[in-house]
């Protein structure tokens, strides 16, 4: 006896029903949509040629000797993982300030003796993807992140203040 293509119960060759096929197709489409929405990174592929960006690190309350040890042209590395994070393009200092309480219970900004705040401009070749910045394509740079870094002559910790 020859089997019909679709039998009287609506199954193909008497094995698989049309509803089963529709459910499998819908599940495949949903899985593909979830993958594209959450896991496919089209911007990274588009920016794979690399981008150059600058960011600013602020180091608070260091000595002038530390500030003098950070030179334009120095290569900076992340202290924890030793990733290259960029080249210093500019260094500036200003007197370190600290909130100091007064006798009446109020606070004022007062200079800290023998301490400076250091601003370091860093330029790096990296990757810009989905509003995220990666120095050297692997080290994520985020505003307000604490960053322990070192160069040939100095090691210190600062905060990433801005990204351009």
User: What's the number of domains?
Assistant: 2
Largest sheet: 6 strands, antiparallel, barrel
Outline: elongated
Helix fraction, binned, reads 10-25%
N to C succession of SSEs: EEHHEHEEEEEEE
Q: DSSP helix count? A: 3
Low-confidence stretches: 43-49
End-to-end CA span: 76 Å
Please compute the radius of gyration using only Cα atoms. 29 Å
Q: Within the largest sheet, what's the order of strands?
A: 3-6-5-4-9-10
Beta-sheet strand percentage?
over 45%
Q: Which structural class matches the secondary elements?
A: alpha+beta
Total strands: the figure is: 10
**What is the overall pLDDT average?**
87
Oligomer: single chain
Overall description:
The chain has helices spanning 18-38, 42-46, 64-69; strands at residues 11-12, 16-17, 51-62, 75-78, 84-101, 107-129, 132-135, 139-141, 146-150, 155-163. The chain is elongated. The strands form two sheets. The protein has a six-stranded antiparallel β-barrel. A two-stranded antiparallel sheet has the order 1-2. The longest helix is centred in the first third of the chain and has 21 residues, at 18-38. With 164 residues, the chain is an alpha+beta fold. The protein starts with 10 loop residues before the first strand and ends with a strand.
List keywords for this structure.
164 residues; alpha+beta; 2 domains; 6-stranded antiparallel barrel; two-stranded antiparallel ribbon; 50% strand
How would you concisely characterize the structure shown here?
This protein is α+β, with helices and mostly antiparallel strands and 164 residues long. Helix content is 20%, strand content 50%.
